[in-house]
Amino acid sequence: MTASSPQRLRSFVTSQFQLTRAVAHALKARPFNPYPYLKPFIERASGVREPPVSATPHTVVYTRGSMRLLRYAAPRRRHRTPILFVYSLINRWYILDFLPGRSLIEHLTNEGFDVYAIDWGVPGQEEERLTWSDLLGGLIQTAVRWTLRVSKSRDLTLYGYCMGGTLALAYTSLYPEGIRNLVAQATPVDFSKGGVYTLWTSANHFDVDSLVDAYGNVPTPVLESGFLMVAPVQRVTRWLEVCRRIDDPDFVTTFLAMERWGADPVPFPGEVYRQYIKDCYQQNLFHQGRMKVGGENIDLGRIQASVLNVIAEQDTIAFPAMSEPLVKLVGTKDAETRRYPVGHIGLSASSKGSTHVWPSIAEWIGARSKAMES
């Protein structure tokens, strides 16, 4: 036995005790994400501190209620046409600006794009009564106008991700002015292909009216429970995997950043959720062109902007079959689907992003954007 062996043994026993205690506290509190309890142990064992998510420099150019419009200015702007990100209402926008070197927004700014993103914030009582009409004709339309104003451009690329893509498509159908290009990334369109999510939200099993009437905004544990039930074992095994790879700082950094984001969900605005579940999942009206917002049908055939349909082949949230019909539904002739061998989150946060995904998307947008005048 070497001189350091007793110290290593004591350290191992102490670490095991701390981990056991952290797990016990987590089980007692029964959170959907044990990150706050297990993070200190992982940090001590690995020597890695909580990584700097959302590190790309940005400014706030507009606020309204809980919503903020963020601007990520390019170090050297090459494109007159800016990009406006519309993210989902379920999680936080900063998965788009994940880590330095692992950030879709950082990549696009380095490519010379003037980038903007909607941060929906944390919904409160005011957002309980928010409707799809308020969302599209109010918040998103205002974000479009401010993006054009600040960027000094006549049109933009609207970039929607997950449910944010559904919102971007609906917005462009109703308010096409100023939308030059539209990127729909991992975007549900045909909700009858939603697998277990379609089954669980069926009107035969799920009374959305009672839920919204009781809570107002839909609480995060209700939303998180669905994702937990899809992969219940993975919620535990991924923590075992990080313990196994505790000496790999890159792996631990990515793991802690992802868990931090996953542990930061937000409530879902109640009235928006009510119509989303009824019109999209329960009746599939969005796919059929019969979903009404402000008395008008969401008809994707009215979309004349160039459309890029981005599909993650390993997506278990917005299954590829949900996104595949898009290019046949839009009115434009410039519509294309590109598929990538990653998962739902991998499109914007995986190690393959900077080499396999983002350059391809940036090339498509750049070819359809106005250049800066020399």
TrEMBL record:
Residues 102-345 form the AB hydrolase-1 domain. Coiled coil: none annotated. InterPro entries: AB_hydrolase_1, AB_hydrolase_fold, PHA/PHB_synthase. It comes from the Bacteria. This is Class III poly(R)-hydroxyalkanoic acid synthase subunit PhaC. It comes from Myxococcus fulvus. The lineage of its organism: Bacteria, Pseudomonadati, Myxococcota, Myxococcia, Myxococcales. The gene is phaC.
